[in-house]
Design brief:
The complex is a heterodimer of chains A (about 325) and B (about 280). Chain A is an alpha/beta fold. Chain A is about 30% helix and about 30% strand. Chain A has eleven helices and 14 strands. In chain A, a hairpin with a 2-residue loop joins strand 12 and strand 13 (about 255-260). Classes of the chains: A alpha/beta (about 325), B mainly alpha (about 280). At the A-B interface, helix 2, strand 6, helix 3, helix 4 and helix 6 of A face helix 1, helix 2 and helix 8 of B.
């Protein structure tokens, strides 16, 4: 089996101080080559701390991180030659033009910005304008250019579409998918759940510094189930629909119309509906947003994760066992 | 977003990146150019002005003015034994009151150098490249030392221009250069302290301000230490006592090698401690 491009094992980060804060608690995960891996969690969950540990900007209290099979601390220079990073909140130097800014960071990389022409075809950035005159979305585009321009094998992106308008977000997502098809690996944190659902192969959810789930999007879709929208010509009671196996929830829309949340096989539902006169029937995949939000709220982490998950909170705060 | 042709042909416009270009050093020089430039402009302006009005100055009895202990303490010149051009230049440019300005400027630049980049997040971009923390720190240090040497070079150039342009503006270059060596010793100390503070903090203005405060404290310690015999112990706390640039130029007397080396040693130790802190700390804005 190929070596994972990112491997985090039992990562713990405690910020010392008068009241030490345990920002990350025993997090373990792996990211495979060519994968777009989403890293989700509410504000303050530990996403950025984990990312900064991966980049050796923050030193872990314990645990190990390897990227490309190399230790993130001991071989940081060799690792950083092969990755691109987009910070979550970067203030670009306003007195530089976009071109000067990109030149500065390609010099620091010691590499030519070979991908820049391709990037500029997608992201329209005025290179000769000073960055201080740029809008937030434009600055984010420049930051995206610097992350991708030197053709990195691995991208670590902290909320990459933050500040981009919907059109910019779509352009970025399309670009990311194209890059992943060409074998590039991506580790990205995001708050935009629909975006994660569309572009990520797998997602991890972190809450209170602990990993509560690492799952493939396909598996989450299975867990999310389907939504059946049905309209009857005759009278059907809500109780009858609730009694159907695999129906998890029933929402009455108007007289004779229901939304059924179905988990598992849809067959019993179809058979139950066939006993009545159906005027309209639609079957849709349930949005993953609900599942993500349940994870955020601490309600959805009852299933076993696909990868080993840290479980020792250590402070008795009653998080995941 | 529709694909649009960029306004410029991008790849061709980019200069070929080279490893040997010291990008952090260049960036630091660019960031601190306004401060260093202002210090250099001030030196040039005052230096040329002194040359211009030197004939008039000789008619004034500045010696009695400076020999007043309060004024002497404020300026940081304990005695003015001669009325030479070098003496007037020393009082107006290299006494501790004026070193407070150059030192303060350099201290602010040094104090803000790393902390500002941590605060605005640009250090993340640099350290996510194949740039080690040690290299980043050392390039910053080198840039600040270049800034320091620029200030000294402009000072020497100004004095040389004075001697070329204005009649009577003669200098004993040996003692003038030795005075600048004392100046360099003091500024080296300032850079070291500034870097130590910068490496320990994550807010640019606060770190720059803290480093400047050290210079101000040194000046106040020197002033009160020389103004009052009861507080004379204070003068040993500031760098000015150990690097009396003006006094060397005026008296043509070397203050002592250990006195010269002490600020250099303290500046070196401070910068190395700053490096260790920077290597070990978490980079968090």
């Amino acid at each position: 089996m190929a070596m994972p491009i990112i491997e985090i094992a039992h990562l713990v980060k405690t910020y010392s101080g008068r009241t030490p804060v345990r920002a990350v608690r025993d997090v373990s995960l792996q990211v495979e080559r060519g994968e777009i891996f989403g890293f989700l969690g509410p504000n303050g969950a530990g996403k950025t701390t984990t990312i900064r540990c991966m980049l050796d900007l923050i030193r872990p209290t314990s645990g190990t991180i390897t990227l490309f099979g190399l230790d993130s601390r001991r071989a940081s220079l060799a690792i950083h030659r092969r990755l691109g990073y987009l910070p979550g909140d970067v203030r670009l130097p306003g007195d530089l033009t976009a071109k000067q800014f990109l030149e500065r960071y390609s010099r620091m990389a010691g590499q030519e910005p070979v991908l820049l022409p391709r990037l500029l075809e997608r992201f329209d950035v005025p290179l000769n304008r000073k960055l201080k005159g740029f809008s937030k979305g434009m600055r984010q585009m420049v930051a995206i250019l610097q992350a991708f321009m030197c053709d990195p094998e691995l991208l670590i992106l902290d909320e990459p579409t933050s500040g981009l308008d919907p059109l910019g977000q779509r352009t970025f997502n399309e670009f990311l998918l194209d890059e992943a098809h060409s074998g590039r690996s991506v580790f990205m944190s995001s708050h935009i759940l629909s975006e994660v659902e569309k572009i990520c192969h797998r997602v991890a959810v972190i809450r209170g510094g602990e990993l509560v789930s690492v799952e493939a999007i396909e598996r989450l879709r299975e867990r999310a189930g389907q939504v059946v929208i049905v309209e009857f010509a005759d009278i059907v009671s809500e109780a009858e629909l609730r009694a159907v196996p695999s129906v998890q929830g029933v929402e009455r829309q108007k007289a004779g119309a229901y939304h059924l949340n179905v988990a598992g096989s849809i067959d019993p539902v179809i058979k139950a509906l066939a006993r009545h006169t159906v005027r309209r029937l639609e079957v849709e995949e349930a949005p993953l947003e609900e599942i993500f939000l349940k994870f955020y709220a601490g309600e959805g982490d009852d299933g076993p994760p696909a990868h080993p998950v840290a479980v020792t909170a250590g402070d008795g705060e009653g998080r995941r066992r | 977003m529709t694909a649009r042709a960029p306004a410029l042909a991008p790849a061709a416009e980019f200069t070929r990146p080279r490893h040997g270009w010291f990008p952090v050093l260049t960036a630091t020089l660019v960031e601190s150019r306004a401060l260093i430039g202002a210090a250099c402009f001030y030196i040039l302006l005052i230096g040329l002005l002194i040359g211009l009005i030197f004939p008039a100055l000789t008619k004034l009895d500045l010696r009695s003015y400076v020999s007043n202990s309060a004024v002497g303490s404020l300026l940081g010149v304990s005695s003015l034994t001669t009325s030479t051009f070098a003496a007037y230049l020393a009082v107006e440019l290299y006494s501790s009151f004026f070193l407070l300005l150059f030192g303060g400027v350099l201290a602010y630049a040094a104090g803000a150098s790393i902390a500002r980049n941590i605060e605005d997040g640009t250090i993340d971009l640099a350290l996510a490249r194949p740039v080690s923390r040690a290299r980043l720190y050392l390039e910053k240090w080198a840039a600040l030392l270049i800034g320091m040497m620029t200030i000294i070079a402009v000072s020497l150039l100004t004095a040389w221009l004075d001697t070329l342009i204005f009649s009577g503006a003669a200098l004993n270059w040996r003692w003038f250069l030795l005075g600048h060596l004392e100046l360099a010793s003091m500024l080296f100390f300032v850079v070291g302290i500034g870097l130590l503070i910068s490496a320990s903090m994550s807010a640019g203005r606060t770190a720059g301000g803290a480093a400047t405060l050290v210079v101000v404290f040194g000046y106040l310690a020197q002033t009160f230490g020389t103004a009052s015999s009861r507080l004379s112990v204070l003068k040993y706390l500031g760098p000015y006592y150990y690097a009396p640039a003006a006094q060397v130029m005026i008296n043509q007397e070397w203050a002592g090698t250990w006195q010269f080396l002490l600020p250099v040693a303290v500046g070196l130790v401070a910068a190395v401690v700053g490096l260790v802190i920077f290597l070990l700390r978490d980079i968090t804005p």
